[in-house]
Amino acid sequence: MSDDVSAHYIEEVRRQFHGHKRLGEGAIAQLTDDQLFATQWVKVSLSPEEFPGYKGERVVCDHCGEGINFRREVRRQGKVLCRGCAGENYYEPA
């Protein structure tokens, strides 16, 4: 749906509910799905590791021996490191 058409429906609902502090669910409920949402076919490119059950290459951290999945390793100075050993922790002490 175009922005012009959406704006038209929104303005119509506002006119119907003039004087109310807010539109509320009742006003929105009067609109059809076609009035509220635009639909279109889309294409999403996903790499194989983004699918459930993907069994990718597993490498081992040269420093601590931790197994690393899904290409999350850090390669530095010819070594393979897990993010923790590379100093890229996803957490911080509380």
What is the H/E string? Answer: HHHEEEE
Shape verdict: elongated
What fraction strand? Answer: 5-15%
Helix/strand-derived class?
Answer: alpha+beta
**Which radius of gyration do the C-alpha atoms yield?**
26 Å
Helix content: 25-40%
Number of helices, counting only DSSP H or I runs of 4 residues or more: 3
CA(first)-CA(last) distance: 48 Å
Mean pLDDT: 80
What does this structure look like?
This protein is α+β, with helices and mostly antiparallel strands. It has helices at about 5-15, 25-30, 35; strands spanning about 60, 65-70, 75, 80. It has two domains: about 5-35, no CATH class; about 45-94, no CATH class. β1 and β2 form a beta hairpin. It is elongated. It starts with a helix and ends in a 13-residue tail after the last strand.
Task: Spell out the key features of this protein.
94 residues; single chain; 3 helices; two-stranded antiparallel sheet; alpha+beta
Give the gist of this structure.
This protein has helices spanning 3-16, 24-29, 33-36, and strands spanning 59-60, 67-68, 74-76, 79-81. It has 94 residues and is an alpha+beta fold. It folds into two domains: 3-36, no CATH class; 46-94, no CATH class.
Topology:
Elements: H1 3-16, H2 24-29, H3 33-36, E1 59-60, E2 67-68, E3 74-76, E4 79-81
Antiparallel strand pairs: 1-2, 3-4
